[in-house]
Write a structure and sequence with these properties.
Elements lengths: L11 E5 L2 E2 L4 E6 L2 E6 L6 E9 L4 E10 L12 H4 L9 H18 L7 E2 L14 E9 L2 E7 L6 E3 L8 H16 L14 E8 L6 E7 L7 H11 L3 E8 L11 E7 L2 E6 L2 E6 L8 H15 L6 E5 L5 H7 L4 E6 L2 H13 L5 E5 L2 H11 L5 E4 L8 H10 L3 E6 L2 H13 L2 E9 L9 E8 L1
Parallel strand pairs: 4-6, 7-22, 12-13, 17-18, 17-20, 18-19, 20-21
Antiparallel strand pairs: 1-5, 2-3, 3-4, 5-6, 8-9, 8-11, 9-10, 11-12, 13-14, 15-16, 21-23, 22-23
Helix pairs in contact: 2-10, 3-4, 8-9
This protein binds S-adenosyl-L-homocysteine.
S-adenosyl-L-homocysteine binds next to helix 6, strand 18 and helix 8.
Length: about 450
């Protein structure tokens, strides 16, 4: 039988935190039994209250810190505790980078059973604030006025927000401007409960390199009252605005964008660059939200691919072709695969935009398309994967093992599935040479890493 649980709900106990969970809570152990406490930091001694007790683990609330970590800082954001968008602002940036490196190293050992893999220090930002190039903000009403901000943690209550410290400043400015303009013109906010009202979300996108701005107004209704006045005022207040879009979302859903997009003014897309590759970004396109670190991530992938110009490369999970186009400049040919058809349309358009012709994109599941290519004789010397959080499908990993590309570059947004997949590839004949964590989302617990594997 299992050991008895050493604590009870509502107990107050003293603990010392020894680790952080992947979602940023402090971990303490009582006779080996773990308790997770939001806001606790490794090395801290504290009094906590036990909130919930499960068989193998429990949750607590921080009551008092007796001894603070030297890495504890005051979160600079005034709404940090209510918002939940960031989870690590109370940890120094240096501490965050070390925690992400440790998280990668720990899962490689624990889940991947990989000893002696070189994990480099996390590549962080010099200025880890104001990095996001896209804001999507829900709109509500309070005492007759409009509010726009974020949903309070674990609720659907909108809290008004003037500024988000991880958002590029221009995006804050767009949100404030559209809110003020619409309020003055008497536009109603969407009411989720009654499914009434007009304005649902304000979205802003910014090309960091080009300075171009897109404003998207998401409405429940086809009609946007005072449309021309709204357009005029946005143009006069926002520098760099190139595109004003209305998106109609009449459904009862918490998905932000609806299916209908109308260009109210200007272009359908804005442009941006990552390195020297130019991208067209529409209101619906997926585009990495931290462009500065995206460049760092892709340069790491490029360095690990170590191309000479003679190689065929496969880019699985290619999205709008960002990594493919980056690699194509140094490869003989790049084949990209992606499941979302619109993303492949963007990828083809982006290839043309940059006069890159040695790429070929296909719509489909990587685990179906790549085995089919392999049967037809399409192989690659270098294979890049950048899967969603759940990692690679086993059928894809098996095809990699059969196809035997000399190098595999694994770009991952989830260290746990990365470690699981690296183990499968190791058992199939690959060696993990090195892993580079890259901080794409400072102050949040998201952890991105690139791994280099070579065929043994
Ligand atoms: N490499 C791109 C996108 C990475 S995000 C970039 O850096 O921008 C992961 C992508 O995998 C998403 O675009 C998602 O639509 C796609 N995807 C998810 N499951 C897939 C599957 N089974 N086969 C191919 N693509 C898939």
């Amino acid at each position: 039988m299992s050991k008895t649980i050493p604590i009870n709900k509502n107990d107050y106990i003293d603990v010392e935190f020894e680790d952080l969970t992947h979602d940023g809570a402090g971990v303490a152990k009582i006779d080996g039994y773990p308790i997770f406490v939001p806001n606790g930091l490794p090395g801290e001694k504290a009094k906590i209250k036990v909130i919930k007790v499960n068989k193998g683990y429990s949750f607590g609330r921080l009551i008092e810190i007796y001894e603070e970590s030297k890495d504890r800082v005051n979160a600079p954001c005034p709404i940090y505790n209510e918002c939940g968008g960031c989870q690590l602002q109370h940890l120094s940036y240096e501490g965050q980078l070390r925690a992400k490196e440790k998280q990668v190293r720990d899962v490689l050992t624990r889940i991947g059973k990989l000893e002696n893999v070189k994990v480099h220090p996390t590549l962080g930002m010099e200025e880890p604030w104001r990095y996001r190039n896209k804001a999507q903000v829900p709109v509500g009403e309070r005492e007759g006025g409009l509010i726009a901000g974020f949903y309070q943690k674990r609720s659907h209550e909108i809290i008004d927000m003037q500024a988000c410290l991880i958002q590029q400043e221009i995006n804050d400015k767009v949100v404030q401007a559209v809110k003020e303009i619409c309020e003055r013109l008497g536009i109603s906010a969407y009411d989720e409960q009654r499914h009434k009202g007009t304005l649902r979300h304000i979205m802003a996108r910014h090309g960091l390199v080009t300075g171009e701005v897109m404003v998207v107004i998401v409405t429940r209704t086809q009609d946007l009252p005072h449309k021309n006045q709204i357009i005029e005022e946005i143009i006069s207040r926002i520098d760099g605005v190139k595109s004003i879009i209305q998106n109609v979302n009449s459904r009862k859903t918490n998905v932000i964008l609806g299916n209908e997009t109308k260009v109210l003014w200007g272009e359908e897309v804005i442009y941006d660059y990552i390195g020297n590759v130019k991208f067209a970004i529409s209101s619906r396109s997926f585009y990495q939200v931290n462009p500065e670190q995206t460049k760092v991530l892709y340069e790491t992938a490029l360095q690990y691919a170590d191309l000479t110009g003679e190689e065929n490369v496969i880019d699985a999970y290619c999205g709008i072709g960002t990594i493919s186009l980056f690699l194509a400049q140094k490869a003989k040919k790049v084949y990209g695969v992606e499941i979302v058809p619109e993303a492949i349309e963007d990828a083809n358009r982006n290839a043309m935009l940059n006069d890159i012709s040695n790429v070929e994109f296909a719509v489909g599941e990587a685990e179906v398309v790549i085995p089919k290519w392999y049967k037809e004789g399409v192989t690659a010397e270098v294979l890049v994967v950048d899967p969603p959080r759940k990692g690679c499908d086993e059928a894809l990993l098996q095809t990699i093992i059969d196809m035997k590309p000399k190098k595999v570059v694994y770009v991952s947004c989830n260290p746990a599935t990365l470690a699981r997949d690296l183990r499968i590839l190791e058992d199939g004949g690959y060696k993990t040479v090195e892993v580079q964590p890259v901080d794409m989302f400072p102050h949040t617990t998201h952890c991105e890493a690139v791994a280099k594997l070579i065929l043994k």
